[in-house]
Amino acid sequence: MTRLFFVFALFLSLTLSAQNNAVSSNEKLVYTASYNMSGVLTDIAQVTMETSPVKTSSATLLKLKCTAATYSKWDSFFKIRDLYESYVNPNTLTPYLYNRDINEGSYSKYMKYTFSHKTKTVKALQKRKGKEENTTVTINSGTKDIVTTIYYMRLLNYSNLSVGASKTFTILFDRKEVKAKITYLGKETISTAIGKKECYKIAVGSSDSSILQGNNSNIVWLTADENKIMVYGKFKIPVGNGEIKIKSAEGLKN
Amino acid sequence: MKKLFTILAVIAAIFAILLAVLPISNLAVFPAGAALIFGLLAFYFSKKQGEPLKKIIPFSFLLTICALVLTTYKAVFVTTEVENIEDLENTELQLEEQAIEELEGLEIDDLEIENLDIDPAEIEADIKIEETTLGNPATEETIPEPTVKADEIKDIKINEAELNDLEFDESDLDDFEMN
After folding, report:
1. What is the rounded distance in angstroms from the CA atom of residue A118 to the CA atom of residue A140?
2. Distance between CA atoms of residues A218 and A2, nearest Å
3. For burial by CB atoms within 10 Å, which of A119, A199, B4, B70 has the most?
4. ipTM of model over 0.85
5. pTM exceeds 0.80, yes or no
6. Is A74 in CB contact (< 8 Å) with chain B?
7. Do residue A42 and residue B26 have CB atoms under 8 angstroms apart?
8. In 3D, which of A86, A94, A121 has the Cα closest to residue A18?
């Protein structure tokens, strides 16, 4: 499931600054994640991506939340309850705080990043098997956490990109910066649970071959409208390949 | 040959049943298909050799049909849904409380508050002005007491020599009004 989230994250992010005209403060996207077993796709988990406003005494931030939970039929065999959340600037999606709480079978881990963009550092707190580890990681400007990156991809203007154009970006994952590249493959119309949509087809690659494999094997489809929501994704990981399909979308901005 | 296909049919049928009862029931179609083929081959060779049909071959067919019925039923009628997410919801609430506390202490200096997309109704709900506060404002301005008293003004003496030294600009005189 961690890899699945990483696949999400690799869709995205540029170092240039973009304004938020795609992500609303009260939207909810629900996906079904399927795994390909011997050519047969099996629904494994439900992935939910939600946004909500969060008020502090000085500002109103945007909370970006991703949860993954296995369907009940799998819970007896391998139960997954993952939570990823990020508190960001609602206009630029600059992250300030990131939480990751994953429970996958007998494996559990908690991670917190506190971003300091002035000093270009991130204070990372990891809790695992009752042990706490505090470290400070130096980051480049434009480095984002995985959840913010997923949403940040929606701020990019794909209509100006020519087919084959690619962009690189940096994601902070497991206290390490990972370089990733997206390549624009053109437009394609596909049928989804929320209707027939014209989409931007984008290939995603990673510098770390242990995360994503193959050349243009990981592809996502973003709606070619103002919302730019992901409606379909195909990915290839070391343990096989799978799909992610949209189930429902609520509270969209446009 | 008949024996080999009979054994393969039984093994495939058992696999089909096992997969059918597991969450990956849609994978049961593969061993079920194989079991049917092996069973038919075993049946064919049995007929060819003129031997009486062993009960094990119909039994493998029965298992296969049961597996296929169960798989079809699960595919059509069983809905996939997420349950038991109370812990996840509790964790989320707990993390949000902690996050808000932490965010209060952070420098969020590049936030353009004027561009925030906030519902006006939300703002109205948050701002509550009590009537008592308006009737008795706590921030009433205090006017300082005059330091020069009227009696003192009468006592001011002007020296004629000082008046002679005064310089007037012509433009100042234009604005002067005599009562």
Report:
1. 11
2. 16
3. A199
4. no
5. no
6. yes
7. yes
8. A94
